[in-house]
Amino acid sequence: MTKPLLEVRDLQVAYGGIKAVKGINLHIAPGELVTLIGSNGAGKTTTLKTLAGLLHPSGGQIQYDGRNLHNVAAHQRVAMGLALVPEGRGVFARLTVQENLQMGAYSRDDKNEIAADLARMYELFPRLAERREQLAGTLSGGEQQMVAMARALMSRPRLLMLDEPSMGLAPLMVQKIFETIRDIAALGMSILLVEQNARLALQVAVRGYVMESGAITLSGEAGELLGSDAVQHAYLGA
Amino acid sequence: MEILLQQIINGLVQGSVYALVALGYTMVYGILGLINFAHGEVVMIGAMLALSSLTTLLGMGIPPVLALLLSIVLAMLGCMALGYSIERIAYRPLRHAPRLAPLITAIGVSIVLQNLAMMIWGREYHSFPQLIASHPHTFGGAIINDIQAIIFILALAIMAGLMVVVHRTRLGRAMRAVAENQHAAQLMGVDINRVISITFMLGSALAAIAGLMVSANYGLAHYYMGFLLGLKAFTAAVLGGIGNLRGAMLGGLLLGLIESLGAGYIGDFTGGFLGSNYQDVFAFFVLIAVLVFRPSGLLGERLAERA
Ligand SMILES: Nc1ncnc2c1ncn2[C@@H]1O[C@H](COP(=O)(O)OP(=O)(O)OP(=O)(O)O)[C@@H](O)[C@H]1O
Ligand SMILES: [Mg+2]
Question: What pLDDT does B263 receive?
Fold first, then answer.
């Protein structure tokens, strides 16, 4: 097995006195697409926010690229190659599409490369190219999701974390977003995908974790999970 | 007619100073949702610092224009350090406290700064040295002197510069991003504490210049000048829509005009019952009227969006 890019050991996170994540372990290898599924309130968003540095763990360890992230602030993690597309997208509504993408490159200073990446994003998401001067707040939900993803990619992440990218989108747009995720993964980027849509997530992922009430209850190859009775019952409505 | 024109000129000059101070309130509000009531005192400290250094430098035989430039720089640096410290000491520890807490520390900081200024500079009025023979220019029967012209043009130039910074630079983009969503900004790699500090320093630099302008315009500075000036500039910011930069500029200029025209004609309206010494009252009529009829200000968005 290759050395994991991300390794989480016994991670615990609490809101005040309430434990939302109760000692989970997970790892992601370089270039791997891993999904984390589970029902509402399982602790998925809490886990991603903690990995991004927005929340502080009450216990456990996060190793990224051989480094303990304990004392690394959220804004410093971006420069290390960690990017989170947050739940609800978090686009800057009063900034233009282009300015949103430029914000994504905030931690970089290679001007020419940034310009080239901008062009690449507009190729990847042609709909954004037409709307580059438009305020992001005026875009449709699906377009905003594209902005959020493109913006995260602008930081040139090594590990891209996506929190429910399909939320609130029409089926066609969900298709499009998942195709893009697959394309990005094919480029060799590591991806941690949190999803309600378990079937789709397990179809694109290599491995998966199932989270329940703050704990990982199942994990394994995506194909196996997709076939397992427990997952079929709980998440696929079979 | 000449009187009207004269009142308009005076109003615009004073209003441009209000605008510079109002920008300080509105930038901080935009980014932290907090009203920095100590900002007026920063203006006062700026005026005092500029005046002291000007007097000292002139006493050392430094040529007036150079002395003036140096004292502007010194006042700006002093106020930037002050603004930075105010945020670090009085606001940052309370970032997650209930809204009332930083409001109370703001008042505390104001009192401390006023008393400090009183200890250093005394209770007396300090007069602004006559640097340049300020030539009056007449047009259309109204008079504008050199100092007024410089104040107005410089204020406009500074505001234009600020708009360029906020809308055309990486820093400005980060400021707008932090103002809109601090978590998302962090996810972009923005050190929000740094951006917040810079915002306080920028606002304080503007305050220093405004302080110097006020004392140059009236020829006076006083340890208590920050209170009323701050309150009026705050009114200007609310009038324009707090949190909105263009609003602060518009509000400042409008308030200057309202005050000046109001003071000029209040005697006519009240049949001589009230005189132009009631000029300060207008700002507060405006504040009350805006809060009652249009709390979001002229250019502001609904306040609910910021809750
Ligand atoms: N800011 C908060 N304060 C207190 N409790 C919270 C907070 N955010 C989340 N929680 C609680 O933590 C638990 C995990 O929430 P989390 O948002 O991580 O779940 P999730 O798996 O992302 O759910 P969903 O699929 O609905 O997004 C829930 O019980 C939730 O109520
Ligand atoms: Mg969630």
Answer: 84
